[in-house]
Amino acid sequence: MAERYSSFEPKGTRWLLQRLTAAFLVVVLAFHFMLLHFVNHAAEVTFMGTQMRMQQPGYLITMIAFGLTATFHGVNGVYNALVNQGLDGTGKTAVKYVLVFAGLLLAVQIVRLALVMAGVSFT
Q: Which candidate, 31, 39, 61, 102, has a CA 20 to 30 Å from the CA of 70?
């Protein structure tokens, strides 16, 4: 039988964070589908309605947390998938820093977009 290999240390911090972020994403995604596909049907979702929802502090915080969690979960998952495929040495280091940089840029854009949708001006 083949050996199981994972770049995650069993029960390590990155292993735990990947599972916690997955659980959070499932819950918030269920909330999203319920609110925007069953309570309000997709045809009823408008830009103005999105702005109104984003002005509610609880919704704004939830959406920012959703975006940041998804970013971490995705970047961490891609990095570990590449390591599991045998990436090592200089390539591993380069990929790590590129993913961290891309993740940080995406995180900044997520927060900026959410705040603009909530009516915060940056001028």
A: 39
Q: d(Cα 20, Cα 65) in Å, to the nearest integer?
A: 13
How distant, in Å, are the alpha carbons of 6, 12, 83, 90 from that of 3?
A: 10, 19, 16, 26
CB 99 within 8 A of CB 21: no
Q: Count CB atoms within 10 A of the CB of residue 74.
A: 16
Question: CA nearest 73: which of 109, 32, 105, 25?
Answer: 25
Confidence at 38, pLDDT banded by 50, 70, 90: confident
Question: What does the pLDDT look like over 98-108, one tens digit per residue?
Answer: 999 999 999 99
Residue spans of the domains in the chain: they are 13-117
- Residue range 1-30: average pLDDT? 82
At a CB cut-off of 8 Å and minimum separation 6, what does 35 contact?
A: none
User: What is the rounded CA–CA span in Å between residue 43 and residue 90?
Assistant: 49
